[in-house]
Amino acid sequence: MVYIGSYRREYLFYNEPSTPPSQNPNPHSISINPNSNFRAIIGLRLPSVCKLHKMALIDTAAAMIFTDRSSSSSSSTARLLIYNSTKFQKFPNTISPFRRSNSLRFGISSRTSSRTIITHCSSSSASAIQVNNETFAKVIDGKRVAKDIREEIAVEISRMKEEIGIVPGLAVILVGDRKDSATYVRNKKKACDSVGINSYEVRLAEDSTEEVLNHISKFNDDPSVHGILVQLPLPSHMNEQNILNAVCIEKDVDGFHPLNIGLLAMRGREPLFVPCTPKGCIELLHRYDIPIKGKRAVVIGRSNIVGMPAALLLQREDATVSIVHSRTKNPEEITRQADIIISAVGQPDMVRGSWVKPGAVLIDVGINPVEDPESPRGYRLVGDICYEEASKVASAITPVPGGVGPMTIAMLLSNTLLSAKRIHNLR
Ligand SMILES: NC(=O)C1=CN([C@@H]2O[C@H](COP(=O)(O)OP(=O)(O)OC[C@H]3O[C@@H](n4cnc5c(N)ncnc54)[C@H](OP(=O)(O)O)[C@@H]3O)[C@@H](O)[C@H]2O)C=CC1
Ligand SMILES: Nc1nc(=O)c2c([nH]1)NC[C@@H]1CN(c3ccc(C(=O)N[C@@H](CCC(=O)O)C(=O)O)cc3)C=[N+]21
Question: Could you tell me the superkingdom of the organism this chain comes from (predicted)?
């Protein structure tokens, strides 16, 4: 059995009938021989890839692989499309990987099935791909873009270290013991390590009081700290406003300080920092050459940390922006007019295919855990947008996971570098 790649919590293998399945796949040494009589196996990501009984089998007759040359990346990218589900076997309690992901992306090169007609609708990098009269949105690969950005940041940081002997520092304050927050903080630390940013972490008890403000004050005065992040949400007894106000605006790498938000909202003024998630959404649009100017954009959600700043940023990019929120009547009538939708709601699969104008670009910020007994964690993450439906209508779409999430962390690193450069007058 040979591992081909993974995408959206699924591993893909192929199995030459002559190869005993007990031979473990080696993810790094693969060669695909499309002429061989192999079976493709798509399985949910499991701790042990050998649990074949939990995997769904398809015949390779139902699968084809082709190279996607419209990618903005210089690397060659292949997609695997499964276009014939007749031989697909669904296992009890298993979300069908076929239905969840018609389009799988791998960093491998491959070849095109002669049975299938593939058309790129336009040369733009947001072009949908047509296969046998079905269109599939281009996948906006936030994970890959975030990796590119981390590499760019790492280069800048070594230059900084060489030129002025300074390394950027990020302080993260985590209050309480929410599991998801602890995971995010751990991921942020890992990301800092990967680019050479020093990270300082403070963990405080759920019932702490003035300690948060004391630590903020200490970090405000510490010259080795260039960015301060207070992980949200805070315990309900804490005054979030007072705490976010206490972070000095020059180190507010989250961009949540009211002064920074105010500057973002004003024409002709520049905030010192733009909030990471909305900044990541716009960066994805830029890196995929998706035009914003003059387009109709709809933001779903109006929170201080995502929806509202996303709408402000789109407006600064000369889009005509509407905001949909929980009191909006007939939201689908508004979203259907959008060339670009940014959804930040927190409702799994709320945005259906019928909410989307054909050819629209969809940025899904939502991170929603849904129960999944097959997943090692007992749940999996889905976005606000029903990927299966919307990816057949849109021209481009971000997946969850692997879309906006990794970009948020990349933008945090970028803001920390920006801060260190500004504080040390480095261009
Ligand atoms: N990918 C990433 O990096 C990040 C992802 N997230 C995720 O994004 C999502 C949103 O986060 P956040 O902004 O903090 O959430 P909030 O709960 O603060 O805000 C949600 C917004 O969605 C609106 N809303 C709720 N229900 C509906 C509905 N049925 N129809 C239309 N609008 C609705 C609310 O409207 P109203 O204002 O009227 O209440 C509110 O404005 C979450 O899933 C979160 O986990 C968040 C941060 C970063
Ligand atoms: N002060 C503050 N700043 C924040 O930016 C902030 C915050 N508080 N509180 C919570 C939200 C949420 N958030 C995410 C960051 C990365 C992923 C991310 O990387 N997600 C991965 C999946 C991770 C997984 O598998 O668990 C992905 O989408 O691919 C998700 C969500 C930042 N937030």
Answer: Eukaryota
Active site residue: 138, 231, 279, 295, which one?
Answer: 231
Spatial strand order of the sheet with 56-59 comes to 2-7, 10-15, 39-44, 56-59
Selected catalytic residue, list 141, 252, 254, 372: 254
Domains of the chain: 2-116 (no CATH), 144-272+409-423 (3.40.50.10860), 276-405 (3.40.50.720)
- Phi and psi dihedrals of 395, rounded to 5? -95, -25
Over residues 237-287, the pLDDT tens digits come to: 999 999 999 999 999 999 999 999 999 999 999 999 999 999 999 999 999
pTM, whole model, 2 decimals?
A: 0.79
Shortest-distance atom of ligand 2 to CA 276: 5
407-423 pLDDT, tens digit per residue, is 999 999 999 999 999 99
**Exposed, middle or buried by CB within 10 Å (0-12, 13-18, 19+), for 284?**
buried
Alpha helices in 45-110 (DSSP H): 97-100
